[in-house]
């Protein structure tokens, strides 16, 4: 028997000691009484518990009618919120183009930098982040290749960077669900799996392309085997629905962005002032039901121009000021609509409805054809992205559904891969509509983009054991659920700071980039290898490397960084205040302390 403690003082119990309270016989067979402290709590990756919506046959006719009306209003609110959510994404893209399009064009001008594959990769990432549109970035690359300002070989790393930059939209959308820990864990893992897939594909294919030019040669073979004829425009169903609203707010002249990259730029504003010419058949998108074009052959050329009809026509504000206004407004609308969508989904997807939706979306084919379910999901993701004409909208819609528990990560992963394929088929059809002098270059760039994503699927999906983005995203989701500020760090480092650092080093020359970046990449790979061996084969390592305990705490744990961030962060979103309160209450609870076997 251990000796009694002097003075009747109890030592501060640890979390393991507190957990012993649940071993009391009166708690046998029941769930733990201290949620949040135990590790065997509810699995955040499992679907949340369904709420019972009640039996329809047990309510009166008036109650049934009221439930039907409320359900109809919820459906209308959900569709309306989704519509304005998509419109806000379009306005957000316009805002980023106003803020960074001229800079994006200036970045593309330096051919000496573009000759470096790593620099081309980070330029593709930065430009896509700046303009928030992979279609705009791809059109700039096509124009530069067609104008002989950029070779096809130099365009391949840029296309890879464009593919990586598109995943920032879903990451931004997932941040709106940071209020609920479990929802944020699932939503952020869904956005992270897309970015991890893109980065892993780049890490494999960029060195391979530099050594063998595989994608360039494959695109040339496909181009030579096809007899190309200029085709029509790709179907644009989504923009046909959103443009009547978004064109009332802002319209941009995309030719100014392309011209700034091809050295045909003027100092004109990116905001479109004139939308067509009266009496010109087939001209322009500005001639719509809101501003019909009428014939006037006797007017002067200046009078023949049809002015656009949006909020910023003739404004005295600069592009930068308009960009900041649109950025603030679109982010406010986007976050508001996303919160409404999540709330309405949580309200609508309950009971049998939620069970039916989850069963349909996450269903597998019967044995032995269950492996075909993922490939069907890839086709569904590609088809929906092709219909929506926007991979950003599709991925931004998948993330909230993951957060509320409708789609699991294993099913969302092939849907996102299909979205990558769908956006390349859209670009391919758009390339077929290019002028004859640019047709071959446009189609080859689109084929390179397609083969890049197809190779990524073959690498990271075809063999189940190589589907590494799924466990990595789950691990990342667990980390961000515990330390929410890690999500912001990931966003800044993956899409801004690291690309900017690599771009700055590439400006100093390829030798400087190799001298600084090579050892850093080697160190990161060594640390990853040691961590894997520590977990699975520690006997293979020397004694000093079997644990990182000999390092300072801030080098092998996030706890000191968490205390620093939560101390500096005035908001509660960065802190674990609820967990801290639960632990403190357990320390002060005499019943729990008395139940421990000291």
Automatic annotation (TrEMBL):
TM segment ranges: 67-92, 113-134, 154-175, 187-208, 320-345, 365-387, 393-409, 416-433, 439-463, 483-505, 511-533
Membrane topology: Multi-pass membrane protein
CC per GO annotation: brush border membrane; vesicle
Pfam families found in the cross-reference section: Na_Pi_cotrans (PF02690)
Subcellular location: Apical cell membrane
Primary location class: membrane
GO BP of this protein: intracellular phosphate ion homeostasis; sodium-dependent phosphate transport
Gene Ontology MF: a single term: sodium:phosphate symporter activity
Spans annotated as Disordered: 1-22
Keywords: Cell membrane, Ion transport, Membrane, Sodium, Sodium transport, Symport, Transmembrane, Transmembrane helix, Transport
Family per record: Belongs to the SLC34A transporter family.
NCBIfam families (alphabetical): 2a58 (TIGR01013), Na_Pi_symport (NF037997)
Designated name of the protein: Sodium-dependent phosphate transport protein 2C
Annotated organism of origin: Mesocricetus auratus
The gene coding this protein: Slc34a3
